[in-house]
Fold these 2 entries.
Entry 1:
Amino acid sequence: MADIQIYTTRYCPFCVRAKQILDAKGTGYTEIPVDGDPALRAKMTEKAGQHTVPQIWINDQHVGGCTDLMQLDAMGQLDKMLAA
């Protein structure tokens, strides 16, 4: 099973949607909440090169955010990444 990390904030609708997509795929993930933790958010920003949430990694490959995840799913690439 794929190793998935997702940086989130509690009330972000894009974070909720990204987790729904992953849940529907039946895959587990490590959620890393960055609300109220500026140091952790700064680490995420440095790692991703972006400051918005969610930021998603699958098997150490940066996927991007929710829209990117949805695009991968629509193109049939997400299932391949999750199977790797």
Entry 2:
Amino acid sequence: MTGIPKPMTLAQPAEDEFLAYDREHLWHPYTSMTDPTPVRLVTGAHGARLALADGREVVDGMSSWWAAVHGYRHPALDRAVTDQLGQMAHVMFGGLTHVPAVELGRRLVEITPDPLDKVFLADSGSVAVEVALKMVLQHQRGTGRPERTRMLTVLGGYHGDTFDCMSVTDPVAGMHAIWRGLLPEQVFAPRPPSYDATPPDLQAWAGAFRALAAAHAHELAGIVVEPLLQGAGGMRPYLEACLHVFREVADEHDLVLVFDEIATGFGRTGHLFVSEVVTPDILCIGKALTGGYLTLAAVLTTDEVARGISASESGVLMHGPTYMGNPLACAVASASIDLLREGDWKADVARINRALTAGLEPLRATPGVADVRTLGAVGVVQLDHAVDVVAATEAALAAGAWLRPFRDLVYAMPPYVISDDELDRLVAGIRGAVRAG
């Protein structure tokens, strides 16, 4: 790329000082404060690469936790932020509106399936799921079924780190199992069958899911799932036919169907949204919504659900974040959507899938590897043991790639702009991480 400012360089004493202060005072995600794992100091980023303080440039296999689909320092996204900054950075959304929010709402209604035409702008993916769950409960109250207060979901899922989100995350094998007993008790069905499962597996699962829904129909308000790919719960794709089962069961028992596409939206699976295959009543999107520039999420729903919420005792949706509809975030989100619509993201995702499939499949024969799977621009190697995160990360960096393994998984979800040469480097990094982890 041209016109990219040179990343900041730091002398070794300065780098050491920043890292020492970070270690002493800053809490990183899912990390011990008293015994933290090492962090690397990033001084710049461009395209699909991160510049580290030690002078190395590494391919970002994580897209900044799956958000930076256009890579870093994209001129159109930079321009959207700076242009909006010249007008206003923020204004409250209560009683006011602004062009960036209206234009983003217009785009979201256009690119998502009918009849999802009501848009709530939230702060983050976790907040979006919280709002969606609140929508489900208020809709049931507004339609005369206040006794329906529980959600039906599946094991293996992950929906965020706030309390109601944790309640619909796998209570046994999920990362929030320690909170079991303190969270609302939801209804969990077996994991959906893997994408390579046989028809009998699908039939058995569907039968069990239908039976569980029927047994709890009197108390269920909705169904919430990650469609087609379970993300942080295990990076596990499942059969598309399961989506139709979710829809049929929701319709049969008057349940509100929620698809959490925080991770899967904006092309990651090969669909712009999995909701194009089966349309939910509520759709949660985030992460790649702003191309990784600013935190923003959205919840889309139908006129029917909105009418139910309005008929509840409050008459309004009881949620309103301080930074709801932030103009900077809305402006860059619209620019990110325009890039997807004008470009050939589908070809890029297919290209990434071919490279990850070809590069990772041979790892099946590697000792310690339990499974290899790919879907869209997602590549996963599952080990038969917990990953040594420090050793695996070092090995990936030595090969020129940034990865963030977790549990028993070494995986990649790279930016769509990644080049073929960078894909080769990323695959080498995954191989190194698998062998070291």
